[in-house]
Amino acid sequence: MAMRDSDRWDVMGSGLATAGIILASAGFGLVPYFARSLTAEGMAPHAVAFFRYAIAASVLLPFVWQARANWKALLWGLCAGVSMGVGWIGYVRAVEVAPVSTVGVLYMTYPVFTLLIAWLVFGDRPGRWAVLAALMIIAAAALASSPAAVSAEHLPALALSLAAPLGFGFGINVLVHKLVVLKPLARISCVSLGSVLGLLPLLAATPIEALRPVSAEGWWLVVGIALGSALVPQLLYTVCAPVIGTARTSIAGSVELPTMFLVGWFAFAEPVGLAQWAACAIVISAIVLTPGKPIRSIAGNAAVGDGVR
After folding, report:
1. pTM for the full model?
2. Residue 306's pLDDT is what?
């Protein structure tokens, strides 16, 4: 008799699954290190974004082919991928010039965009706890990016970085409302493929010297950002999240933000001020407060995102 999916998940204990989510979130949190290091080598931000998604799109492409009968859902996934890939350019650009801690807090505003898009586009009205969590995240973003916390010269890049959480918020809505007919790996695959396709026009208009690293170390960074911050964390999320549920996944996943802080602190010698740490605490508290039961409403699942980033 064939083993059911639920039986497979039961093989893994909740402790191991929680550790998997923490490891995956730490991988997502390492993105600023790879991104800033690669742009320092002369790579364009959209080239960095392309390489982050390219390996996942290539490795998982067979799952898109297997799901070809659900072509409407795949098209939605491709559109979500385009928005996430193009939006991520602003994130890479901001990490290049602004403090990693501040950019990280602004990126974590994606639940706010998720709730707004769910409400305005899909008619999914958020609950009171989700609204409270969203207001807390807005307060944290304002605190981390206030004139007292960052230089005025960084404000344009920080504003542009909001394209990343906006694109991710749209992507989460598509995952919840349009991609439920697809298996998890097919969802990751079509979204990654959409990101690659959305970035191709920008690559075509970019000089070749800005499309690739100039050193062997740079190529290892490319491998690191593609595997360590995309493919492997996405797979870990896909396997581990169903084991422990939305609530514990969101709480364990909140390690992503302090990981970004530590990257800025240790890798780039950026001081992390009281405002950034306070904003970090507010964001993590908001994630903990967000309803986590496995319900259809995206208001209860905004902090998870199924591992597609």
Report:
1. 0.86
2. 56
Q: Which helix (H) or strand (E) holds 78?
A: helix 71-97
Cα angle 249, 250, 253; round to 5? 80
DSSP-derived letter for residue 79 is H
Q: How far apart are CA 97 and CA 180, in angstroms?
A: 38
Kindly tell me the sign of the dihedral angle through the C-alpha atoms of 235, 238, 239, 243.
positive
Residues 187, 179: contact at Cβ < 8 Å? yes
Q: How far apart are CA 29 and CA 147, in angstroms?
A: 25
pLDDT tens by residue, 257-269: 999 999 999 999 9
Alpha helices in 178-231 (DSSP H): 184-204, 216-223
Two tokens, residue 201: 């026009």
Task: Give the max Cα distance, the chain.
Answer: 64
Are the beta carbons of 293 and 246 closer than 8 angstroms? yes
Q: What pLDDT sits at residue 307?
A: 64
CB environment 221-238: b (16+ within 10 A), e (fewer): bbebbbbbbbbebbbbbb
Neighbours of 166 (CB within 10 A): 21
pLDDT 10s digits, 100-110:
999 999 998 88
Residue stretches of the chain with pLDDT short of 50:
1-10, 293-304
Q: Which DSSP category does 115 fall into?
A: H
Structure tokens at 153: 């010269």
The dihedral through the CA atoms of 60, 63, 64, 65 has a sign that is positive
Q: What number of residues does the chain have?
A: 309
CA distance linking residue 34 with residue 36, whole number of Å: 6
